[in-house]
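$ run holo --ligand "magnesium ion" --emit tokens
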Amino acid sequence: MYIGLSSLRIRTHFVIPTLNHKPKSSIFSLLNSSFSSMSYQKELVAAKKAASLAAKLCQKVQKSLLQSDVQSKLDKSPVTVADYGSQAVVSFVLEHELSAEPFSLVAEEDSGDLREDGAQDTLERIRVLVNDTIASESTYSVSPLSADGVLAAIDSGRSEGGAVGRHWVLDPIDGTKGFVRGDQYAIALALLDQGRVVLGVLACPNLPLAPLGVQSSAGQTGCLFSAVLGEGTYMESLDGSSPVKVNVSPTENSEEASFFESYEAAHSSFDLSSSIAKKLGVKAPPVRIDSQAKYGALSRGDGAIYLRFPKAGYREKIWDHAAGSIVVTEAGGIVSDAAGNPLDFSKGKYLDLYKGIIACNQKLMPALLKAIQQSIEEKAASL
Ligand SMILES: Nc1ncnc2c1ncn2[C@@H]1O[C@H](COP(=O)(O)O)[C@@H](OP(=O)(O)O)[C@H]1O
Ligand SMILES: [Mg+2]
Ligand SMILES: [Mg+2]
Ligand SMILES: [Mg+2]
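-- output --
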């Protein structure tokens, strides 16, 4: 359903059926039921194991990060030995655990820079990290990976994804800038089936188990979020605890809704989000944290809204949102572009979207879409 709002056609995404809120009969419910009859239990176990092991590697590196561990990619963004190591570990675990299935992985990193002259020491550091991490998992009795084996594991993430078949989608460290700063980051792994996200796992080693803003006595950190289509979202400790079901904030009152955005000002327009928050009457200041840890925190109701408005021309990648989006939708939330259109993960590595990405519960969405459109129009008029 669409409603006209100014010149833009806004999709009232809040009535588009999700598995939790499906109408009695529609093409969507038929589609959903055919997906929900499938079991992804084996894939879920493998994904949780892969993300948890990769998190171990990242935690070890973050504790004693060396200057030489951080490099710059061609686009000037940072990459570390932990990004590469995490990608190799996830790729190894998935292939090992799911060896009977065809394997396709769309992942952020590739081995190009590690094959350059002068990268041998960095590659050796990654090789040792990867082998130590795999050896720490007692169920694997495999011989250590060679440098070529590590490069091959990283490069098995070269798939383009798409609308046909199954594809894993991996961000080995989402929020590398946060990781380097010692702040939040996430290992984000999702599974696409026929272009749709059907499973997502987010390992957030620095996220407190207690809600943000609430001091727990133990102050334990390290959360693992997991979601399967139609089965809800669960959170457990990365150290191992029973998963608990989580839900997005139920608030209908936008004045009491706090919102998340990037820590990095270059990743999202803070001006736009501030104008939107003002229109909604939001009283709390923005909660700025790195990575898809924002989706995890939103899924358990720590805040009620996520706003992300990259600069014009920036193209969002599927690995930055696939796992986070299902973690939020299975917790009862909605994730869409700034016009209310659902995110389409079936088009390869990139997401085509209007202005940005937003998330909140169903009740807040109409007011949020209206505030966004008004703020965008005001900004355009002031230029
Ligand atoms: N100019 C830009 N605008 C929006 N996102 C950007 C960006 N430059 C990089 N990013 C993405 O923002 C991600 C981090 O998101 P956040 O701001 O929520 O922490 C990065 O993931 P990586 O750290 O995996 O490269 C990167 O993909
Ligand atoms: Mg990156
Ligand atoms: Mg990322
Ligand atoms: Mg990354």
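-- notes --
The chain is about 35% helix and 20% strand.
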